[in-house]
Amino acid sequence: MGELRLLSPQGMLGYGYPEESLRRGLEASPHMIGVDSGSTDAGPYRLGSGKPTVPREAVKRDLSLMLEGALELGIPLLVGSAGGAGAREHVEWVLDILDEVVLERGKRLSLAVIWSDVDKNWLLEKLGKGEVEPLGPVEPLESEDVLKARRIVAVMGVAPYIEALEGGAQVVIAGRSNDPAIFASFALWKGFSPGLAFHLGKILECGAMASVPGSASDSMLGILKEDRFL
To answer: Angle of helix 56-73 relative to helix 19-27, nearest 10 degrees?
Structure first.
């Protein structure tokens, strides 16, 4: 494949986007649609509380239009960090909305759900074996931190997404994810350069923020080639 077209309708699921932007993106015959659904901008509150970041009605509107377009073109739809923080409660919340949309529209699809929750006992065992190291300048993790935490999630990369795509998933709803991995996974699955895939993925995960004027509530189409992207 000499060219891959990746469509990002918005910077975060539920932020809204013009239907015209999505329509124009779909007219470009993209090979996949991807959308980030999480953020650390608000700190750890969403993860700890289990509450979503945006209203249910907003997610339903955005998701239903994307789903319709993806199924019409026969391309996969990938949603990362579902529900705001990607914990089980957040993923289940998005799945409930998806179920509602599918029933209302009378659709059938192949769905992959990827959980990112980490079991406390497993983590405590790894901590006891000295297999947990701090990332950058943060303080070392203590057993007390693990025991006090309401929810713990890992940040997944491309591997779980690629496994879902290889399994034939039309829609992927994933827990906490590396934002660029939502798009890079599809590109790597198709054999494109990891460097280009992740660079383009980082731009696309914010929707049209890299455009002028920038907006997370608008769409962007990325065109990936063997030696460059547009």
So the answer is: 20
